[in-house]
Amino acid sequence: MMYVIYLITGLLAGIVGGLLGTGGCALIMPVIRFGFHFDPAIAVGTTLTAVVFTAGSGAIQHLRMKNVDKTTAMQVGISGVVGVIIGSIIFAYIKDYGDLIDLIVGIAFIIVSVRMLYEGLLGKTPPAPAGTTMPGTPAVKSALGTSIGMLTGIIGLGGGYALVPSFLYFLKAPMKLAIGTSMASFVWIALVGSIFKIYQDVVNIPVAVTLGIGALIGAIFGAKLVAKFKPNVLKALFGFLFLYVSLKYILLYFGIHI
Q1: 84 to 51, 87, 169, 218, 244: CA distances (angstroms)
Q2: How far apart are CA 94 and CA 121, in angstroms?
Q3: How many whole angstroms separate alpha carbon 75 and alpha carbon 88?
Q4: CA 20 from chain center: how many Å?
Q5: pTM, 2 dp
Q6: In angstroms, rounded to a whole number, what is the distance separating the alpha carbons of residues 116 and 103?
Q7: Which of 117-130 are b and which e, b meaning 16 or more Cβ less than 10 Å from the residue's Cβ?
Q8: pLDDT tens digit string along 76-113?
Q9: How distant, in Å, are the alpha carbons of 18, 168, 202, 212, 231 from that of 176?
Q10: Rounded Cα gap, residues 43 and 40, in angstroms
């Protein structure tokens, strides 16, 4: 019965991720951490492993739709793999300190909430230039890949959460190209990060697979529902939700439960 619940959780997370363009991991992680009371390190590892499914499926779809700058995907992917290895080594030293992991994840979620509230309440959206190649120098792209890979290795978030907005705001990339190239880059980062997390024994593999399959299916429906909702309203609502999640994580570090 629990695995049915995990499947539904992944499905709902995938739908929300498809609607918001953030990926399902941003919702899966707090749900399994607080809803199912996973250990902080296990929540990180299990979420990252589940994301491999959605990233892989998304990468294939966007390659078929020609929404991927392959050169950029390779640059970011290779540097991101280096970063995720470094981040995973750092994670090995803190994985037994659950309160510290909660604090780091909470700080990361503040960034998510601020971004969504900014875009949702003020109606601010990234510029959407046209083009089939990603702006920016190889050095800048490699630096982004390495830093986001490190972040992924430590907290299990990185694709829609960090790569897409980085491509949009820093490189001024077209939206479709930003999403597609992010998926094609991040699948390798997530895969290598997942292997490290499995080796570090912080992944509940059956749960990760169940969540991943659910999120994969949900993301397909979420993408189709985008046209039926006002993106700004959704982002504002989930901005407040993620602000609450970030505060819950951070206050837990200080022994305060909300």
Answers
A1: 14, 5, 22, 26, 28
A2: 36
A3: 20
A4: 11
A5: 0.87
A6: 20
A7: bebbeeeeebeeee
A8: 999 999 999 999 999 999 999 999 999 999 998 888 78
A9: 13, 10, 34, 23, 16
A10: 5
